[in-house]
Write a structure and sequence with these properties.
It contains four helices and three strands; from the N terminus they run H-H-E-E-H-E-H. A three-stranded mixed sheet has the order 1-2-3. Helix 2 packs across helix 3. By secondary structure, it is of the alpha+beta class. A hairpin with a 5-residue loop joins strand 1 and strand 2.
């Protein structure tokens, strides 16, 4: 992925939708200097996006987190926020 500006200029609305929804975000680093990525599971519904758009967003998120790595750190801390997660959301995940 070439970034947010590229997506805006090329009208990649599916990718931009993922950013706007805030499905996941980076929130600094933990005590071990690993980037913290928070994934809000309740915001994922497979029918809301094309798999390619979600893949682009995931790669963008991973590459952005990679820029936060320092020293000998080569991992990240991923937190799945299950607040408001429902059976409907679970069905979306299972049907992927």
């Amino acid at each position: 992925m070439k970034g947010e500006l590229y997506a805006v200029e090329n009208k990649e609305e599916g990718f931009l939708k993922q950013l706007r929804l805030g499905k996941s975000y980076l929130h600094g680093v933990d005590l071990n200097e690993r980037p913290i990525c928070v994934v809000r599971t309740r915001l994922h519904h497979s029918s809301d996006q094309q798999p390619e758009d979600l893949e682009k967003f995931t790669v963008w998120e991973m590459e952005t987190a990679r820029l936060m790595l320092t020293g000998n750190v080569d991992t990240a801390c991923v937190i799945f926020d299950m607040t408001g997660f429902t059976v409907l959301s679970l069905n979306d995940v299972v049907n992927l």
